[in-house]
Structure formats: structure tokens, C-alpha cells
Amino acid sequence: MVVIDLTTFDGSGFNPEPAAGQLDSDDWAITLSDAAFFDFGGTAEGNGNIFAWGTSTGDEDDGGIWAFDVDGAGLIGLGIQPTNNLFTPGQVTLRLVNNTGADITEFRVEYSIWVNNNEARSNSLNLQESADDMTYTAVGAGFTSPEAADANGFTATDVVEVVTPAAPIADGSQHYIAWIGDDEVGDSMERDEFAIEGITIRLLNVCGNGLMENKEACDDGLANADTAACTSMCVVAACGDGFVQDGVEECDDMNTDPDDGCAADCTIEEPDTTTGGDSTGADTTDGPADSSGSDTDMTATGSSMTDASATNPTTTSPTGGGSDTDDDTSGGSGSGDDDTTGCSCNSSGNGAPIWGMVGLLGLAFARRRRS
Q1: Percent of the chain residues topping a pLDDT of 90
Q2: Spatial separation of the C-alpha atoms in residues 228 and 248, rounded to whole Å
Q3: Which residue from 63, 112, 195, 361 could staple onto 68, CB 3.0 to 4.6 Å apart?
Q4: What pLDDT is recorded for position 274?
Q5: d(C-alpha 348, C-alpha 174), whole Å
Q6: Fold classification of 2-203 (topology level)
Q7: pLDDT tens by residue, 247-286
Q8: Distance between CA atoms of 354 and 335, rounded to whole angstroms?
Q9: pLDDT grade, residue 105 (50/70/90)?
């Protein structure tokens, strides 16, 4: 699973070695018109550049690429302001690289389209996929904004589509997904504003994609780990499984046997510091016998006790061996989608999404308000 992070994007452009606030052009290519585009590895930045208008909450006149704050509270989307000669048609392309070690026959793309329907014209923004970045095939029904304008500001439509390429994506091969926009109907000279946000790419039928599949006991996606509530094998963590769960267990020796240093509840057993026998008869190990024929066994600290024996230590650490399927230690249930165990996607160059767990990309969306 790959979650593409746009939280730090500030609309300052694209570069193969991106500065803070920029996006990596090894991952992204954009065509606004026949005369305004950059390909993968290109540079598009600087004040007044149509690919780098900065951050806005919308209602802009300048056509091109923005970082739209779609909720007014810092939720950033890759923004597009079409005009009569920009993005009509146009294309935003994301390059993916298979680094799983196996062929990929399908994957799922999730994202949100935010539209500021502030103009009396309808525009489309549709998902397509390609093996060569030349011939593209439509995925799903696509999205078209209403012709009649409203004053609602940015509103979201969540999209989930499964991409099934015509041929398997071989290990090491590239694949492309693109959002292609164009005019539809209406006579307004102005166009609605769009933003793409919440991009998540998952392989299917694999542990680590954040989906409960194939009789998995849990799958917390990027949170899966052998020290977490859901292990890298999509098994619920439990005392005795050989993995020490963070914040829950002190030890785990792959059994629940007592008196072996790790107790049955996966807390550490303190060593027995006492010596001696019982108080019913004399022994010769620790001290002189008293007048009753018994002796007083001496502890390691020199204090005395009768019939000294080791006792199980009392700790304040968690003693439950149970687990849940989210990131806390409360024993509750749940799942977390925003590391790469079981994933299969990541990024090429300095960041193009590579399916490595998935490992599909090295970029990750941290903030989502929708499931």
C-alpha cells in the first residue's frame, strides 16, 4: 500500500530534486496545453509560473497548478484551475514502478476529487491508465462537475477503482495512471476548480494492503509490524507468538510456560534471590539451628524469613496477552490505513512510487478526513 503525502505541498512547483513544498517530477508529469507541459524529470517552478501558483482556498482567476486548501483547515490537494486554453484538455500523470519481485495483475486506486463548482460550466476529470504513457485506457465512469454553479465551496467525491492492465506489470516495469480533464457543457468563460487528494494505491490479495482479505485475522496496512497489534503476517499479536508487542508485552519466548524468565502473561520474571528450606526441621545451609531444632533461613540481603520461597513479582506492566487490529494497546478493535510490510509499491528515481510492500510510492498522505 502507498499513501501519497501532499500535506507539505505548497504549490511552489516540481523538481527532480524537490525543495521543501515542491513535488518530485520523477513521479509527476503535467500537461496543461500543447505549449505548457513538463515531462518526468522536468523542472517547473518560480514566481508567476503556471505550474507553481502557490497555496489558495479557491476562487482564483489564474489558470494552472495550485495547492488548494480544500477544507480551509490545511487539507491540501493537487489543484487545477482550468481556463479556455489550459487543461481543456489537460493531464496530470503519476508514474508507478513495480518493485515487488513478481508480476502485478491488478491494483486498486483510491482518491478524492474536490471541486469548487463556482462557474456555470461543466468540466470532467477522469482516471485513465497506461503501460507506455502514450496509449491510455479509461478506468471507471469518470467524474463531471455540474453545469449550474453553486456557492458551496470545495466538496468531495470519493473514488475507488480497480485497475486491471491488459498485460501483467512485470517486476521492474513502469505503469502510469493519469487524471485527464476537459470542457463538457456550458457557456461560461470561467471553469470550476479541481483538486486531487487522498491518493492511495493498494495491491489486492496481499497482506499489508490494509484490507481484510483471504481469511486474514487483521490488516492494518502500513501499521503492520511484528511489534504491533497486527503482525507482518496479518496475524493478531498474542503472548507466546515470539514477538514482543510494543507497550503490551515485556517479553515473549514463544511459550506461556512459567519459571523460565518470561511468565505466562509475557511479563519478565525476576530471579529467585532466596535460599534455604522449610521451618519444620533443621538444615545446615544457612545458619545455626534454634532451640526448636529448626533454623532460620537467611535471605540474600541478610534479613531472615521462615520457610523462605520465591514469589512471582508484581509489576505495573500490561499483563494481557490479547491484541487488537489497530495501533493502540487498549485491546479495542479497528484498522488503520495514513510500514511497508506486505506492500508492493515504491518510487523510481528520487521517489517514483515503487510497489515494494505494496511499496508503491515513497510519498504518503498523512491527512484524510474520509474513509
Answers
A1: 69
A2: 9
A3: 195
A4: 59
A5: 9
A6: Jelly Rolls (2.60.120)
A7: 999 999 999 888 899 999 999 998 766 554 444 444 444 4
A8: 24
A9: very high
- The three cell numbers of residue 118 are 463556482
Q: Model-level pTM?
A: 0.70
Residue keyed to cell 470519493:
158
Burial 193-207 (b: 16+ CB within 10 A, else e): bbbbbbbbbbbbebb
Mean of pLDDT values over 292-315? 35
Fill in the amino acid letter for 153.
Answer: G
Strands in the chain per DSSP E? 2-3, 13-15, 23-24, 28-33, 36-38, 44-45, 55-56, 64-69, 76-81, 90-98, 107-116, 121-130, 137-138, 154-163, 174-186, 193-203, 297-298, 304-305, 345-346, 354-355
Would you say 294 and 280 are in contact if contact means Cβ atoms under 8 Å apart?
A: yes
What are 74's three cell numbers?
Answer: 490545511
d(CA 330, CA 318): 10
Beta bridge partners of 66: 79
